[in-house]
Amino acid sequence: MASDEEISYAWRDLPRELKEIPAPLRGELVARMCVAVSTGLFDGAMNYIWNAAILQLRAKVRNFGLPIVAQIVQSDFEEKHLLELQDSKLLELCLKLNLVDEDGFFFLDQCRDVRNNFSAAHPTLGTVNDREFTTFLNRCVRYALADASSPKGVDISAFISAVKGARFNGTQLTVWVERLSATHDAQRQMLVGMAHGIYCDPNTPEPPRLNSLDVCNALKAGFTAAVRSDLINRHSEYAAKGDEPRHTASLQFFEKLGLLTLLNESEQHTVFVKAIDRLWNVHNGMNNFYNEPPFAERLHELSQQGAVPETAQEQFVETIVCCYIGNGYGVCWAAESNYQSMIRAFSPREIATMIRLATSNGNVLGRRVGSVTACRTRFKAALGFIDPASVPNGVRADYDNFLR
């Protein structure tokens, strides 16, 4: 038995560890541990708290869902299998299910070894003192007992079947978003990746694509760095394999979710230039005043996701300002609010580009401003949307001249 001094030190440290255990988990085994500590039976106390930790880990696996565990381990897994698992295998399963992290697995596995060799569960190799017992208790509490919450697993086959089925209604979408939100990060990352794959598959019908997008859009605010990294890796893999249909769909996926800033600048450039070209072609086509609004709206949405790549800024500025000032025959009033919003958001660099282009006859904007009175008047109005403090000194004189 431990000495009175060791018992005193262990008893003194006990409340600090016990308060970390949620009240529902302070059961009979924890009480027996306290009695064992009070009498100096540290080997028995270790066994009691270890058993409490194992029971809690089993409860977490059970709450995760035994049928879902069976899907993940790809074998039958029922209650009897859970009860028959050796402690070492249970820890490995908890790590695989992300019920404990790598640190928790490492320290709990050390505790398992200590318990097997120095507790009352088996003939001991030696004894432990108060400091060793307190460390053992701290690890059991921190990595197994302190968190009473248990994430529930998501039935993978049911999720895929639902996403690939008919278009989600509001209730169905809410249910699946709640299920994915309630599971752990690793499974959520895997399922978001599956949704991305379904969206990018060229053989996927439109309803499943929209289902995938809806689920990811509802979850995107909580995307961890690992989820974002996994999506980028999947996207890059399509590019590396030369899978153009999937790569194009993946670009659209990032665009729809407002995550273009995760992509590299060359890919952002591609997305912006395509949207700019489409707006410019419509602007110069037949019935442009009726056809511009959806293309202007799309470019506006893209510009709100982040800064326009420098390589596309000049084309972006010229197209937006030309569409706003019109072509001498009029303007598209239905798209005007989008054009105004984009001009108001111009960076100092884009403002300088706008003024520089307007002072030159070597481009469409300069020719319209220089030769069409109505366009020059509208250009002056466009300058009014810009905060004078944002105008770079290099174009200040031209700015003042236009306003005069």
From TrEMBL:
Superkingdom of source = Bacteria
The name on file for this protein is Uncharacterized protein
Q: Which organism is it from?
A: Trinickia fusca
